[in-house]
Amino acid sequence: MDDGFLMEVCVDSVESAVNAERGGAGRIELCAGLVEGGTTPSMGLLQVVKQCVRVPVFVMIRPRGGDFLYSDREVEVMKADIRLAKLHGADGLVFGALTEDGRIDTELCTALLAVCRPLPVTFHRAFDMVHDPVVALETLISLGFERVLTSGCDSSALEGLSLIKRLAEQGVASQSATCRGFWKAPLLRSFIALLAQPGTRE
To answer: Is the pTM of this model over 0.90?
Structure first.
């Protein structure tokens, strides 16, 4: 994508992945269950997508829709899915976990990050459910997440622009904030022009 921004597209099929790359996507987030906000895709889907596109493919690790509080058994599923995704060619992983009081679940995130490495990891839009986004971003930076998906804790990235800019300024030295939403091209270009923050390049 031009304007110095990388466009990541969330897809749930081979056809969508191919179309995303043709349309200028610089990275793909592969998932299932888009109506639920994204869940872990099948490994068969990952294998075929990797055969059909050249851009990096980051795989969603989320065993179910709903909240971001996970049982011990769900955590074991997530760890197994991470290992399989790495085995089948994932270029990065995407996950998020919170505590009951709306904070980053540092213990679980640390354990999952260890399984993900050496691949880069993105904290997904569970971030938009946190109690204090400024504190949450500092926590994610300290844990070692490479990027955060967010709409600025609002219904859309455009409406959450003020917080996105603040977070971008906060994390400019070490964090890549990725604005997530559904865009038509003219609106996307207007949003990029409005954002114009060095910490937010995706």
So the answer is: no
